[in-house]
Each structure stands twice: as C-alpha cells, then as structure tokens.
Specification:
Blueprint: H1 2-41, H2 44-47, H3 58-76, E1 83-87, E2 92-97, E3 100-106, E4 109-112, H4 121-128, E5 132-139, E6 149-150, E7 164-165, E8 173-178, E9 183-189, H5 198-220, E10 230-236, H6 237-246, E11 252-256
Length: 257
C-alpha cells in the first residue's frame, strides 16, 4: 500500500513539475517576443515614425511600404554583387544586380510570424529600409558543388561515348540569419522530393528542437529567450538551389510585405 502511495506522490510531483516547466516556457517565450518589440520601438530612427498604424488609412500604409521597397532597391542597385528581393505582396523572389532583375521566381507558398503584423511604421522602416545583409547561412547543400562522373569504359572517348553523370538527389533547404535580427527559412519542395518527404521533415524538426532546447536553457537560468522573427519561403527545390548558388556568401536582401 505504501509503495503505491509513494508512486502516486512521485507521479504527481513529476506532473506538477512538467506543468510548471510548460507554463514557464510559454510565459518566458511571450515575454521574449514583447522584449524584442520593445527594444525595436526604442530605436531612435524607429521613433521618428512613431504613429499608430491603426490610426492611418490602409492605402497610406500600402504606399508607405511600396515607397520603402523602391527606395531600398534603389540603394541596393549601387552594390557590385547580386542581391535578393523578396516581394511577399506579389509572392515573388528575385535575383537582381544593378537594378536589373536577373531571375524572377513565383513562390509556392510563404508564411511569417505575426510579429511582423504588429510592426509600427517606424520599426518597419528600421528593419527593412536599410541595406539588410545576411550574417550567416546554414544549408543542406554545398555552395560550390562537386560533380562526380562515372566512366563507362576505358575507350569511351574513342567510341564517342560521354561518361554518365552520377546524379546526387538532395533535399534543398537553407536558413539565413540577417543582421537586423530576422531569420529567413527557404524550403525547397516539388521535384527531387515530394512535399512532406521524411528527410525534409527531419531537417525542420531538428531545427525546431534546437530552438526549443536553447529556449529551455535560457528560461532555466531565468533569462528571457532570444527571439528571431521568422519568414519562411516555399519554392521548388530547383529554384531554391538556383537562388542559393547564385547569391554571394553574405548577400543583401530587400523585403516588401
């Protein structure tokens, strides 16, 4: 009898601790998002346009974002390398150089954190009206691929036969952290692998687990977790690969919401 009472007490204790941990995780995560917004609103350039977006006409906000988009691309047109333009308003991703659109790709889908819907005009301009640049990138594919060829026979050249190229099937995903604190997720789907392929699922689940583990470490130390608002773009894997390998290591990026 005492044994079962002891087991019930242990189970109750574990349950209460788990509940406390989940509540702490939720509370600290929300607090981390609010702290991020607070810090952005306190930036000097963001305070120059500190009016409430809910108090202005939607047409004004549309023109404000379009003006910001055009001005940013004008600045980037002076760069000497290829840069990336992400137009969420028209679901387009573009490779540009010197103001010329080199490649234009239609997104299959996209999503972004609700955090971006809450931005004041000043914070929006602070985040996206400057030369936003990629700080670091993690990808499932190589930037400069190595081609492996299979020789059919020793006299293939004499026979006029071309060697077969060994095609390596890859999942195409990459993540870029920007110098403005925003994270871009590029998910390739459609040709090499169908949507929902297990390798793709494993990749994104592992990324989520890493974020959860980092949050738990920070909340366990009674610290607000770092928050990086995310934008996820879904492209065909071929388009995702083309963009990734065409861009320099740390490209500039322009956004239009």
């Amino acid at each position: 009898m005492r044994k079962w009472v002891f087991i019930r007490v242990i189970a109750l204790g574990v349950g209460l601790l788990s509940l406390f941990a989940m509540l702490s995780y939720a509370v600290f995560s929300v607090a981390g998002v609010r702290q991020k917004m607070k810090l952005l609103n306190e930036q000097s350039d963001a305070q120059l346009l500190n009016f409430d977006p809910l108090l202005v006409d939607s047409a004004y906000m549309e023109l404000f974002r379009e003006k910001n988009w055009l001005e940013t691309r004008l600045i980037l047109s002076k760069a000497d390398s290829i840069y990336l333009s992400v137009n969420l308003n028209d679901s387009l991703v573009q490779l540009e150089m010197k103001g010329v659109v080199l490649v234009q790709i239609k997104m299959l889908d996209f999503k972004y954190d609700r955090f971006f819907d809450e931005l004041s005009p000043g914070v929006y301009r602070h985040l996206f009206a400057t030369q936003v640049q990629v700080d670091s990138t993690f990808s499932t594919i190589e930037k400069m691929p190595i081609t492996i060829k299979k020789v059919v026979g020793g006299n293939s050249e004499m026979k006029g036969e071309s060697p077969d190229t060994i095609r390596i099937v890859e999942t195409v995903h990459w993540i870029s952290w920007l110098d403005n604190g925003v994270r871009i997720n590029i998910e390739g789907v459609g040709t090499d692998f169908p949507t929902g392929n297990w390798r793709s699922e494993v990749f994104w689940i592992s990324q989520d687990l890493q974020k959860i583990a980092q949050t738990i470490r920070q909340t366990s130390a009674l610290k607000l977790p770092d928050y990086y608002p995310e934008i996820t773009l879904v492209l065909s894997d071929r388009d995702a690969k083309t963009i990734f390998r065409a861009l320099p290591e740390k490209p500039f990026v322009a956004f239009r919401f």
